[in-house]
Write a structure and sequence with these properties.
single chain, 377 residues, mainly alpha, 2 domains, 18 helices, 0% strand, transmembrane helix, membrane, transmembrane
């Protein structure tokens, strides 16, 4: 903390982050942290002391032993980090911090990344505390793999944050960050639906890789826990939901890209069904590795249902943004609510019905939005 840039960043950015997000942090503490650290057992008369402790720590033990618990825990870490990235990126546009654009860039990139990494460490203290507690409890109860991965995962998020902030502050306003390095893409065909894919190649490669890694981990964990149910349609439905959930950040960014960079396309002579098909083509290419995996691993029925549910659920997650707007907090809550509801439908044997309902719901939301946009235009 002796470095001037680090002190300035912590004072200007970190303090403002905690002031602005006091309500969010209190909500996390009340709804998650309290139950996560210790959940009291109501009736303890019939339990031994060891059983009471085991039940009180059941939530944290689930996060290091059950695939769904691991996905939720790592998802919380990622979503919290995304929230900090959004805040810092918005904060750097403020008039009162414009001096950072000139003073901090005079330092070497390594020095800048070091200071930004310390800032992200300070911003991430709530999830770091959560991770440390999970690590300790996991080791104490004999779980070694996931607790060992948690520090690596958190350090990866901090390292990427430092790199992202350094690149952000060193990129002049209006200058594309990597456009000059991608001349090999100039002659590639660029149909309308593929524009966001090129945005990923140009500027969002790291989020894409992290998303695919998270998707692969979620599929591998769930698939390995149920070795005797590999032909069960419900298993492929759960895998589809988990994979769709890991792509939420990219789905949100695709909406943001369309809203801010493709606004002019509202005047294009596309019909409603054409726009919907283009959305399907975009997410079909974005989810191509997962879709191929479902078709190759499962039998004909399970593979098709898994691939269809993954694509249709992703379309629903994208379509609800038309109604909610670009509000990450509301969007994430709504998506987690849908995830829980869809999971219950699958567990009760409604996988086929869910695929059909997802397609219909996504089509209706997309149709309503574009129809209203054309009338307003």
């Amino acid at each position: 903390m002796k470095k001037p840039l680090t002190r300035v960043l912590v004072k200007v950015v970190a303090s403002g982050f905690y002031r602005e997000h006091t309500g969010l942090l209190l909500t996390l503490f009340i709804l998650i942290f309290i139950n996560f650290f210790y959940t009291s057992v109501l009736n303890q008369t019939h339990l031994t002391q060891e059983q009471i402790i085991l039940n009180a720590l059941k939530l944290v033990l689930t996060s290091v032993s059950e695939p769904l618990g691991v996905i939720v825990l790592f998802g919380i870490f990622l979503l919290y980090s995304v929230k900090s990235w959004q805040y810092v990126a918005g904060r750097l546009t403020g008039v009162d911090v414009q001096f950072l654009l000139y003073s901090s860039t005079a330092l070497s990139p390594a020095r800048q990344r070091q200071s930004w990494a310390i800032l992200q460490f300070v911003l991430s203290l709530p999830i770091i505390g959560l991770g440390v507690f999970t690590l300790i409890i996991g080791f104490a109860f004999g779980h070694w793999v996931i607790p060992s991965v948690i520090p690596i995962y958190l350090l990866t998020l901090i390292a990427y944050s430092a790199w992202y902030y350094t690149r952000l502050i060193n990129t002049p306003l209006g200058e594309p960050a990597t456009a000059g390095k991608l001349t090999w893409l100039q002659r590639w065909p660029k149909p309308f639906f593929s524009l966001f894919l090129y945005e990923i190649i140009s500027k969002k490669r790291v989020p894409y890789v992290l998303t695919k890694v998270a998707s692969a981990i979620s599929i591998a964990l769930v698939f390995s826990v149920f070795p005797d149910a590999h032909t069960d349609v419900r298993l492929f439905g759960v895998l589809s939901l988990c994979s769709a959930l890991t792509h939420v950040v990219l789905i949100y960014q695709s909406s943001e890209f369309e809203l801010f960079y493709l606004r002019f396309t509202r005047n294009f002579p596309y019909r409603q069904w054409q726009l919907f098909v283009q959305q399907g083509a975009l997410f079909g290419f974005l989810l191509l590795p997962e879709l191929l995996w479902f078709l190759l691993v499962g039998d004909l029925r399970a593979g098709l249902l898994g691939a269809g549910l993954l694509l249709s659920t992703t379309l629903v997650f994208r379509a609800v943004l038309y109604a909610l707007g670009q509000r990450m907090d509301y969007y994430l809550r709504f998506v987690f609510g849908l995830f829980t509801f869809f999971l219950l439908v699958i567990l009760f044997g409604g996988t086929e019905l869910l695929v059909v309902c997802d397609v219909v719901a996504a089509w209706m939301l997309t149709y309503r939005y574009h129809d209203q946009a054309s009338q307003d235009g």
